[in-house]
Amino acid sequence: MQAICEFLAQVLAAAPNNFGFLLLAATGAMLAERSGLGVLCLEAFATLGAVAAACAVTHAGLNLGGEWGLAVGAVAGAMVGLLHWWVVRIGRVDAVVNAIVLNLLAPAVALFVLKFGLNREQISRVIDAPLQSNAAVVWVIGCVAVAGMFFVAWAWHRNRSQRNSPQGLSPAMLLAVGLLLLVCALLAWCGRGDLRAGLPVHLPFAVLLFALAALALERGKVSRWIAAVGKDAEEAALAGVPVGQVRLVTGLLCGAMCGLAGAGLVLGHVNSFSKGVVAERGYLAVAAVVLGGWRWRGVALACLVLSLFGGTQTQLQGGVLGTALPFALPYVAVVCYLFFRRGEIRVPRELMRLLREPLPSLKFRVGLILARGTARDASVNQYLLEWWQRKGGRLVAEGSDIPLEPVPVSKPLRTPESLGRVQKHLARLARRHSHIVGVGSPMIGPFSEFAKQAGDWPRLAIIDGEDAMADEWEEPRIHGLQFAEDQQGAPAGYLAAQAATLIGKPSVVFLGGAPLPAVRRWADGFRRGVQGYNRANNSSSGFVAVSFFQDFVGQTDAGFLDEWAARRLTEYFVEFRGVGIVCQACGKASRGVLDAVHKARMKGHVVFVVSTDWASEVKSGKPPFGGPDDAVLFVVERRLEQRIAEWVNHDRGVASRALPRGPRGGNLLCCSARTGWAHVRGLPAELEDAWSKAAQELKKNGR
Amino acid sequence: MTNVFRRVLLNRLPPWLPSKSQTAVVAGLGQFVATLLAVAALAVPFAWTSDVTWGEAMSSEFSSPASLLLRALHYAAPLILAGLAAALAGQAGLINAGIEGQLCLGAFVTAVWAGNYGFMSWCPDVLRTMLSLFLAIGFGAALGFICGWGRARRNVHEVLSSLFLGFAAIYTINALLGFPMLREAGGGAATREISQTASRFLRWPELLSARATPADFVLPCLLVSAAAWFLYRTYPGLWLRGVGVNPEAHDRQRVGWSGVRMQILALTLSGAVAGIVGWQYILGDGRQYPDAFRPGYGWLGLGLAFAARHKLGWILWGGGCLGFAKALATGLSNRLSWPSETAALTDAAVLAAVFLARRWYDRHKPWSND
After folding, report:
1. Which of A41, A100, A277, A661 to mutate to test the interface with B (most CBs of B within 10 A)?
2. Taking the complete model, does pTM exceed 0.80, yes or no?
3. Which ipTM value was assigned to this complex?
4. Which tens digits make up the pLDDT trace of A231-241?
5. B99 and B86 in contact (C-beta within 8 Å)?
6. Do A338 and B174 make contact, defined as CB atoms within 8 angstroms?
């Protein structure tokens, strides 16, 4: 019994050191990770903070006191936190990768600094900083704690006077924070004289900063900002939250707290510095944050438990479990908790977006995607919106409209009310912003409501179907493209067959999304075009297949599924059957086709025949297709092709300014069944000549 | 002339217009030059204070350019394999942060199975070596499978589970080394050495020097080729990549494959390759599992895979550069008396070079939009 009591007493005695470090580091990590900045590099922050503090205290030229050593450690940690933020945010490096590199670098940098700063390999038992002169530290901590307690009392009184106020803090929260501040003040009082005499030097700091962080995370604008940024950075940015600054501040704070923890470790606990002084406590702090579910109560409890584990480790070393096995215990415990817990851990959503693309830049002030879709196609809208954001556009609103053809759906579709609401919303947005691009929407319907409300918006491009043609299209501010399926498919098929022959892969395939009548008409026209080319030129360009994703995967009610089916189908045709030309008229699934052909292009020259869906993308400067040396065929129809051609050809308008210029000068081939070739630029000479000739023939034949 | 002027000044494009392969070659060469510069930058402060000249240091450490290349190959092999392990998970959009633990587990299993312990004395050395390979693969894959299962079924983030499982494995192995039956007789806390004949398996045919084995060259090429074939020429590979680019597409009933299974498969394969790294280390270089074994290959491989954006060719070349830098830094550190741990600075610089080269390539290759 006595042995057990002694064991427990020793465990408890060893716990505060670990607790101070873990609480400080975990508080910083909690702040940063709740704002979506992943910090697996607490180890690096703490190591560099520790070496900076050790150098500051032991360097003969500096000869700083212990409190200055803590400050130097905190500043060094903050600098590394700043570096981490900068690399992640500006350098667009994944946070996990940067953390790994920093963790690799930190011991090496520490040794480098020691070698050249102090001319020794490690600082062993030489840190004898005059921590006795810590009156300033005690006063600062005590004053902040007392002020915090006054604030808590005031908030309590305010809560009582304003019951049911949504802004108020809960009594439990106030009680907890008040107690924490009281403990902090007591710790500061107990530690006066010589902080190292009894309690670890960083423990009062840890408790104080943790209390302040808990307050900051629970109420006020800061808490809302951090929560918003952690939940969805794009939405937060649209709501006016300075995403970058929030993450910068939390990254700095995290680095500073970890640096302080490292400095406290070497100055107040270990009393020496070596490259492994932090001994993976940083990873344990991450574990504490995970165990605590990114909530301050849970994190505090997890830190307490893990620090007791740390004390147990110290006592168990050399026992029956050996020296190493106790070190495995916390990790095993964390893994067991993660695997066998009940319920979900509420991870900040932004933190889980590993490998995500960087936040959109402000090059495009506004992008609006109005997706084609049925009532069951909310996922399509969502997909397109996400894709737009990934490509750098900013989300303003989403709308839903009606299907191309009546297809079975679960909800009632187009109603005047819903359409009017969407258009009013569009108009409001259009008035507010300068550039709006509408994509898809084959049956958005008459735009009278929209045009009435839009006011003085400058530019709108709508890609639409034939049946949306209405008098409102004469409105000069609306630039629309029309879709005439079979007429448009025929020249496309003709040209595709010709291009396939030219590149030596005389087979083409047509890929469509759903076998809707309009798409079938387009495919029929395409087939006729291929046959026409073969007849005219006595050629044998093979028309491989008309393939629809819906037939392939069973159903296509979600955009990303279409995309993946498209990718899969295209890879099959291009890579396994050697198809040279892929013609697609599949709207939202086009990216799958394009990506697959993009990769397959390593093996040969593949030409896209892209339908009108992507015209607006080109105009907005972000064409979804691969790149500058492709021949991109736009097939447009009716009244607007000339306008498109003007946009493309001349240095005015959105398109010509934003178009990427390829090695051969350009990439756009604009074609119409009525006007022939509007623009040929930047193609291989033989292809250009042949296609021009073909265009003249087409024009002559009136096809 | 006007066009050139416009390209250079207005569009900030080079006057020459390289193809994709030319761009890749330029990026790769730049990466190699950056590697050399990184080593030189680290060596200069030490060489400044040392009496040994550069030429002396190089000639005394590397007898010929071939020996330098062989040494680089020797260092590069585990890095390439670790990078491949990370890339297999990365292709599925996952991060295997526990490669270090998985390779330690593979190494430990190999050391015990192929070591001079009585319980395997009946088994011929070659067979024992082969069995140890399967065991290393199995144990590494098992660790990866747990992480994949946790990710797919329990929604445990694979970074956390693999990281902490890796640490747990490392410390548990270190604890097991304390048992007398596993420890080297009369020695420290390390396993017994495996026999020469068992380790000769990797050295056959013995054409190269003692430091570099043919396996250093064959194994990475073989595994990278196999991985490339799997990823780019098979449907499971396509599905795995598909899950990586769009994890939300894993609806088996809709698209025909199970994203959950692909996630588990990716992490299992990643763990298996990490186990092979440990196997190769023990049979090729270490010949016993030392106390507190933390080679660092796992972290470097992870960094390499991310810097190379999980592209296998880039991992191969980047790993070669990293091995070259390691060989140079290790050799020079012996002569110029700098702390060997500071070689991590070179590693980080080379990783940065790979990252920048890859980014430069992505921006300047003819197809640069994606």
Report:
1. A100
2. no
3. 0.83
4. 777 667 666 67
5. yes
6. no
